[in-house]
Amino acid sequence: TAMSLNRSCSSARARAAVLSFLPILTWLPSYPVRRFLFSDVVSGLSTGVVQLPQGLAYAMLAAVPPVYGLYSSFYPVLLYTFFGTSRHISVGTFAVMSLMIGGVAVREAPDDMFNVLPANASNMSATVDTEARDARRVQVAVMLTTLVGIIQILFGVLRFGFVTIYLTEPLVRGFTTAASLHVFVSQLKYLLGVKTQRFCGVLSIVYSLKAVLWNITSTNVATLILGLVGIVFLYLVKYVNERFKKKLPVPIPGEIIVVMVSTGVSYGLSLSDDYMVDVVGKIPTGLLPPAAPDFSLFPRLITDSFTVAIVGFSMDISLAKTFALKHGYSVDGNQELIALGLCNFISSFFQTFAISCSMSRTLVQESTGGKTQIAGLMASLVVLLVVVAIGFVFQPLPQTALAAIIMVNLLGMFKQFRDIPNLWRTSKIELAIWLVACAASVLLGLDYGLLVAVLFAMLTVIYRTQSPKSSVLGHVPGTGLYYDVDEYEEAAEYEGIKIFHSNSSIYFANSDLYVTSLKEKVILCVCVCVCVIICFEVEDVDSTEVTREVSSDNHVAVQHINGPVGDSCPDVDSEVVHLKTPNAVHSIVLDWTPVTFIDSVGAKAIKQVPVSKEYAAVGVRVVIAACSSKSSHDFSPTVIIISELCSTRA
């Protein structure tokens, strides 16, 4: 019986492990063909039509030939169908990821590494061997993708899905806004048809913009006109799709229309030969055989791979959680890491670059009725059809048309500038995170900018806990609520009781500030009460000199006061007066509701609070309310110190 029980438990665990690793097995056997299949097919075809031009366009951002964007729009999408936990996101090429990869590729394979001098032409300037340069950049992008996949798989296996909590929403939105500015500037040269060097690293956006403006007089008019027409058309299509989305059965595929029309115009008018318009060029037919990455690049790319891996996962999981919440199911962050890692790692052997999910394609996939990743599978088959059969058709496609597609797709990211006034009203600290993430990423580049943004966000956490807001609480009559008496007029203090609240845990970084704030808001209140009582008693004295006096109700220490009656209350030392009156403070409550932990330094600081000793003679009692047992167990000496400090738990 024991053996059979163990065997059944082992099989159950194995089955759970398989279902976790291959989420498709949890929904495919019960897939409702009649209800879902038609919607998924329509959604997949619509998404594939969008994915095709975006794959071609984002390959330009990744600094590799356009066909590699098609490869990256097929293999990862196919694999995600089996390993992903989200039913609605559209994985594949993504502008921010592509730009980051392109920056690394350009850094490792710059143009000046491939300068070639013409034979027997010493007076002529060197030309760039674009074929050799592109081949090297592909190797860099492929190896970077392999490392990104390995890192994401390891993070998923080690259950490191929590790392994205350090990429807060304001940080991510500020970072992606900066990335959109980088992308926009990088496409200006394609829109204008000018020849400039591609820059990367610190101030690369400044150098790129300067280079474009410096060469703006050499703008190709035909290229500019074609690009502007594409931008205006795509903008109008996006407006119509948004304005009439409830009436349109499927969104108007503006991008594929631009690709087809511009390709036809380019071919019919021979724009490449007669008007010097840059076109996509050769697109080989068929898929490439698998090949191992160049592992000699490993030491130079390992740092970049961590950045790309984390950014890619943060984009994926944020969208996945958003649509899972909307449609009532859950996603597994660690499995998403593994899924993305497998998509990148396996696909890299087929010459792809790193992918994530795209907001624009995800919205298309979801709005056109996509129910499961069958829609993603259909989208990948659309791309496969182009790669295998009709890729050559897009060889005359002008690069300015792809630039127009990229620029218009950035509109959604540029709308994130609206976050600034909203954050100004709601949270100045989150606004600072947004601005630092954006400014640092614009000026320092996306890799260093992200690092600076994360460090700054962590510093804000330290700042918030080191400088917590403190207050004296009062009770709102007729309720069980307690609020700051300085902010809420309805809140009234209990007679003789001061409730002190600080919205942070107590540890070495803020323990002194906690005690200081406690003195300012509570202990000084006790002293003020005492001084008022002294002045009141003095004003009742007929003579101008007061000496020792003891009564049954009050105890007055030795003190001589010289001066006329009615003068201001003189300074009193610590030995002066201890008076017991009906209005005196007799209890101080430390509200520890927000305190999740207290370390030894914080505990010692609480023990040294002066009120627990100086006012013991008059019965001022210090108690702790809502002390978490969990926080006490985290540090055993704390329990001993608190037990010495408090005689009562409120």
TrEMBL record:
Native organism taxonomy: Eukaryota, Metazoa, Chordata, Craniata, Vertebrata
SUPFAM superfamilies xref list: SpoIIaa-like (SSF52091)
Identification of the protein by name: Solute carrier family 26 member 5
Keywords for the protein's UniProt record, in alphabetical order: Membrane, Transmembrane, Transmembrane helix
GO molecular function: secondary active sulfate transmembrane transporter activity
Pfam families xref list: STAS, Sulfate_transp
Regions crossing the membrane: 56-82, 140-162, 212-236, 374-394, 401-417, 432-463
The STAS domain, residue ranges: 487-626
NCBIfam families in alphabetical order: sulP (TIGR00815)
Cellular compartments annotated: Membrane
PANTHER family hit by this protein: SULFATE TRANSPORTER
Gene Ontology cellular component terms for the protein in this record: membrane
Membrane topology, from the record: Multi-pass membrane protein
Chain coiled-coil ranges: none
